[in-house]
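W.,

You were right to be curious about this one. When I first looked at the sequence I had no strong expectations either way, so I just let the prediction run and decided to look at it fresh. Below is the sequence, 159 residues in total, followed by the output.
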Amino acid sequence: MILNPPGLGPGSVQRLPHWPYVQAVDEALTGRGIPPGTVRAGRTYTRGNTMYIVFVWDISRTAGRGGLRFNWEEDTGWVHALLGVGPSIATPPQPLTALRRVYAAPDDVAEVAEHLVRNRPTPSDEFGAEWGQAAHVRATIDRFRATVSQPGGLWTGVG
């Protein structure tokens, strides 16, 4: 499991209010034996500070002919793309329609990912469970947006 955002230094978790979801999904993926090779989390600066997550499995971590990328945005949920030999060669992103919630339960995300990582079709089941901490993270993101531009710099997570 990823404990803290790498490379961002002290206080960086406060700049990523969706970090608990990143950790929960990463833990579920690792628990299934399919840890991604790349994990990115951040926010768009041009589209209203939309939070995002990217998980990437390169060709060495999949059973198929290429890699896999899972993208999450807080307003649209999960999509995936199949990657070619190089990560810049990818199919257009496709919604993961099996995951019926924006904040899908991490174990459900991991189950869908496992099917794709192991070169199986996307499960035909629908996963409608929402992650138990979704409401808290949504509220934290709302506080982040309300205070990120306040005098004194970046949001501190207090309040």
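Here's what jumped out at me. Residues 103 and 134 are 6 Å apart (CA to CA). And, maybe more interesting for your project: The chain has a mean pLDDT of 86.

Coffee later to discuss?

I.
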